[in-house]
## 1
Amino acid sequence: TERTLSIIKPDATTRNLTGKINAKFEDAGLRIVAQKRIHLTPAQAGQFYIVHKDRPFFGELTEFMASAPVVVQVLEGEGAIAKNREVMGATNPADAAPGTIRKEFAESVGENSVHGSDAPETAAEEIAFFFSGLELVG
Ligand code: GTP
Ligand code: MG
C-alpha cells in the first residue's frame, strides 16, 4: 500500500467542509492514518511550496495557505497518490469532473480546497515535512 500527503486548505476549513471532504476520501477507500489541524505561517507555507517560488502566483498562494487553519493528513491505500488526485479533481474547478472535491467545493484555481502529493518522491518529502513516524498510525 501507498501513502500520500493531503492538505485541506483554508477555503475549505473556514467553510466547515473538513468532514465532507474526509467522507470523499474514505468512500474512495483511502484511510486517514494521520491528521492534524495547524495554522501555517507565511514562511512555513513558502517552505512547503518552494518548488513554485518562481511562479507568478507564489505570493498569493503562500498568503492564502497562511490565511486560516489547514488540516494536514496522510492518506493510505492501494495506489493512494493517483487515487487521491482522482478524488480531488483538476486544479481548476472549472475543469474538474463531476463528483470530485474541487468540482463540488473549490472556489477558484487558487482557492481549490485540497492539495495532494503528485509522485512517490514528493509524497515522502511532504509527509516528512509535517509528520514524524510515530504520528502515522496505519
Ligand atoms: P496541486 O494538486 O495542488 O499540486 O495542483 P496541481 O499540481 O494541479 O497544480 P500546481 O502544482 O501547478 O499548483 C499548485 C497550487 O498552486 C494549486 O493547487 C493552486 O492552489 C495554486 N495555483 C496554481 N495556479 C494558480 C494560479 O494561477 N493562481 C493562484 N492564485 N494559485 C494558483
Ligand atoms: Mg502540484
## 2
Amino acid sequence: MLQEQEVHAAEMELTFIAIKPDGVQRGLISEIISRFERKGFKLVAIKIVVPSKDFAQKHYHDLKERPFFNRLCDSFSSGPVVAMVWEGEGVIKYGRKLIGVTDPQKSEPGTIRGDLAVRRNIIHGSDGPDSAKDEINLWFQPEELVT
Ligand code: GDP
Ligand code: MG
C-alpha cells in the first residue's frame, strides 16, 4: 500500500511520444493513443508533421555516431509523424514499458511493439527526464501544451 505521503509526493511528469511514419502508414494511430489513454495518461499536446531530415537529425542527435543514423533519419523524415506530449504520474518510465524494447522481436506480448510490430518499431518514447524535456522543447511551443 502506498502511504498517503508517497501519493502526495508523486510527481506529475510529461513525456514525448511520436508515432513514426511506419506506424502512421500502417493505420495504428488510434490503437496507440488508446493504449496510453486506457492506462490513465492524459494527452496534453498532439500534432501531425512530416519532419525534415535536418529536424530528424536534431531529434536523434544522441545517435549521430551510430552506423544506422543516416538510415534512421531518412526513415523518420519519410512521412507523417504524430507527435504527442502525455502527462501522468511516472509516464516517462511507464510509457517506455507500454512501448516495449527497441527490437520488436524482443518486445514482450502486451507491449505496443510486441503486439504490433515485426521489424520497424512504429513508435518513439523519451527514455528519461532529460530527453523528455529536450524533446518536448524541440517539438512543441509551451503554448501548445494544454495542462
Ligand atoms: P528506442 O529508444 O527504443 O527507440 O531506441 P534507441 O533510442 O536506441 O534508437 C532509436 C531508434 O533507432 C530505434 O527506435 C530504432 O528505430 C533505431 N535503431 C536502434 N538501434 C538500431 C540498430 O541496431 N539498427 C538499426 N537499423 N536501427 C536501430
Ligand atoms: Mg531512444
## 3
Amino acid sequence: MGTSEVISMSGVNKWYGDFHVLKDINLSVKSGERIVVCGPSGSGKSTLIRCLNRLEEHQEGEINVDGIELTDNIKNIDAVRAEVGMVFQHFNLFPHLSVLDNCTLAPIWVKKTAKAEAEALGMKYLERVRIGEQAHKYPGQLSGGQQQRVAIARALCMTPKIMLFDEPTSALDPEMVKEVLDTMVDLAKEGMTMLCVTHEMGFAKAVADRVIFMDQGEIVEQNEPNAFFDNPQNERTKEFLNQIL
Ligand code: ADP
Ligand code: MG
C-alpha cells in the first residue's frame, strides 16, 4: 500500500433541503487502500461516495480527490471524473450501444482518444473482466453479472486512479454475485484504490484494509475487518452486524 493520500474529506456536511444527510464527515484514503462502507439503508453511503466524483455537491467542509479541491468551480468536474471510476447498482450501461462501444464512448469523447486505440483498450479491459468474447453484443443480451462486469471494464477504460462501487452486487441474482466479486478482488489485488459500498462481508474480510460503518449520516465506527466484525465497539454497529451476519 502506498502512503500518499488520494482522498481527503474534512468536516463535510451536506443537506438535501433541510435533511442533514452527511454530518461532519472526516475521511482520509491512501493510494492503494481498499475501503468497504456499510450501514443501514438511508444512512448516507451513496451520498458520501457520490460526493467524491461530484454527482452530489456538499455544502460545508473540504473534499480533495487526487489533489483536486472539489469546489463550485465547474472546471474541476471533468478532471475529477477522469480520475474516479464509478460502478452503480443498476449497471447504467447504454442499451443501444454494443458492449465495446459502451467501453469506448468516454475515452473517445471525453479523453479524445483515437477510436482504434480506445477499442484496443476496451478489449483489454473486457478480457480482464473475462468477457472479451461478448464485445459485440448489446447489454440486453447479457446476464446481470456479465453486464456488471462490462460496467467495471467501462470504468477502467478511463484508467481511473480510484474506483467507487455503490452496491454493485445487490441487484444481481445470487448465482451471479461471485463473478462480480471475483472481478473486484482481482482489481484489489492489482493495487487499485477502492471505496466499495457493499454488505458482502466475505469480500470485506478478503480485501478491505478498513471497514467504515455509517448510520444516520455519520461515520460511527471504522476498523480493520477482523476487529470490525469480531469486536465492534458501538451499539449501532453491533445491532447492524446482528441483522446482516
Ligand atoms: P444509503 O446509500 O446509505 O441508502 P443515501 O445516501 O442514498 O443512503 O440516502 C441517504 C438519505 O438521503 C435517505 O434518507 C434518502 O432518502 C435521502 N436522499 C437521497 N438522495 C436524495 C435526494 N436527491 N433528495 C432528497 N433526499 C435524498
Ligand atoms: Mg445507497
## 4
Amino acid sequence: AKAQHRGSSQYFSSAMGTDARERFKLLKGLRAGFEENRLFVVYQPQVELESGRSIGAEALLRWRTEEGNFVPPDQFIPLAEKSGLIISIGEFVLRTACHQVKRMLELGYPDFRMCVNVSLAQFRHPDFIATLQRALRDIGINGHNLELEITESMAMEDTELVMHVLAEIKRCGITVAIDDFGTGFSSLSHLRQLDVDRLKIDRAFVREAQSSTAGSTIAQMVINLGRGLGLTVIAEGIEGEEQRQQLLALGCHEGQGYLFARPMAADQLEQWMEQQTQ
Ligand code: C2E
Ligand code: CA
Ligand code: CA
Ligand code: CA
C-alpha cells in the first residue's frame, strides 16, 4: 500500500504520523522545499454575512513537493513547529501576506483585512514583536490591515505570556482573532482577560449547527458568548446557502468558506475582489 501511495498526500497521512524516520524525511523535504521556494501562500476571502460584502482574506500556507504533490498544512505545520522551522516559515507567510496587503491598498481597498495564522512557537519567540514591526515598516503598511489568528488552545496554554504579547501586538495597531473557537473549552472569565477583537467559530460547529438541534444550540451559545463580550464573530467552513442563513439568524457577523470562495492565488484574489465591487 505504501508504494502505491508514494508521494501522494494519502501516503503522508497514513505513514507520517507514527514513524519517526518518515517524519524526519518529511521535515527534510519541508526544509528543502522552503529553501527552494516550493512554499507559497493562498488567500481565502472573508465576507460580511448579511451584505455579502468582502472584507478581507485569510492567508493559508501551501507546500507543493518536487513531485508536484500537495502536503496538507495540518501535516507539515506541526513538524515545522516541533523543529523550530516555523519561525522562519511564519515570517515568510507574514511578509508575503503584508506584500499582498500593500497590493490591495494600491488597488483601492483601504480597509482590506489580511488574517495570518501564528503558532505558539512564534508567539513565544522573543523577536516576534520586532518581526511584526519590521514587516509593517519595510513593506509600508498599517497595522489595521493586519489581523493575527491564534488558536483558542494556544491562548489557553500560556495565558500570562499570551496576554503580554497581545498587548504588544495591539500597540502596533494589529487586531487579533481567536481561531477554532469553541474547541478549547476556555472559560468566560479567561476569555474576558484576553484583549482580542474577533472570535472565529470552528468549522465543526458550523457543520453541527445544521445537522442537529443540539448542534445549533451549541452554535448559538458560542456566538452569543462572542457577541456578549463585544467581539465580532466570524464562522469558518460555510459551504452552503442554508448555513449562511442559519448563522446569520444566530447572530454571526462574518463568514468564510467554499460558499463564497476557495483559497486562491494572489492574482485570483485580486480578480475576485474586483468582481465583488462591480
Ligand atoms: P485554519 O486556520 O482553521 O484554516 C481553515 C481551513 O479550513 C483551511 O484549511 C481552509 O482551506 C479550510 N476551509 C475553508 N473553507 C472551507 C469550507 O467551506 N469547507 C471545508 N471543508 N474547509 C474549508 P488548510 O488551508 O488546509 O489549513 C489547515 C490548517 O493549517 C489551518 O486551519 C491552520 O491551522 C494551519 N495553517 C495554514 N496556514 C498556516 C500558516 O501560515 N501558519 C500556521 N501557523 N498555520 C497555518
Ligand atoms: Ca485560521
Ligand atoms: Ca480555524
Ligand atoms: Ca479549524
